[in-house]
Amino acid sequence: EPEVTQTPSHQVTQMGQEVILRCVPISNHLYFYWYRQILGQKVEFLVSFYNNEISEKSEIFDDQFSVERPDGSNFTLKIRSTKLEDSAMYFCAIRDIYEQYFGPGTRLTVT
Amino acid sequence: AQSVAQPEDQVNVAEGNPLTVKCTYSVSGNPYLFWYVQYPNRGLQFLLKYITGDNLVKGSYGFEAEFNKSQTSFHLKKPSALVSDSALYFCAVRDLGSNTGKLIFGQGTTLQVKP
Asked: How far is A9 from chain B (nearest CA, A)?
């Protein structure tokens, strides 16, 4: 099973601040995804990333969000100006033919 | 629109008894279906998938799932539950309207296995 790590495990930030969440897949994959899970709710798709560019994004993924793969291995999600409603678990995932493998998540708390 | 429903918020079962966690889907086409498990403060772990072929698929930790096309269901099962199976279970379907393979998740079912 492909391994995915995420850092930090927990991030607390003040409203309006920028945060960067990081994902490191241990092996090479082409498709990357970010999902989020607001506490007590279902997992929601944010964005997919293929061949170093965004291939699909949800309506949640507005101009405050961006993704990039700056060095060919790390895959980052940036939220430019956090809002209270951005508080959630953020999961990175990679795709292996059909199934996706998820990282342990970053818990983002916006105060 | 494609969707997945898990009709039960919580399922309670005694250790050693069989368990079933229900999932129904609505897709336009042949579905790719998945089950994931989430332990407290952990990520989503892949359990099993149905792509094509045999309607009964086997996965990790002794879990299996039965694909039923006529009932549009993909229920997760285990013959004998363990206390350690207690977790949050998510059914998911690949969005066939997407060319990126994104997943659409159900709302999750909490499985509580009592000793």
From this structure: 10
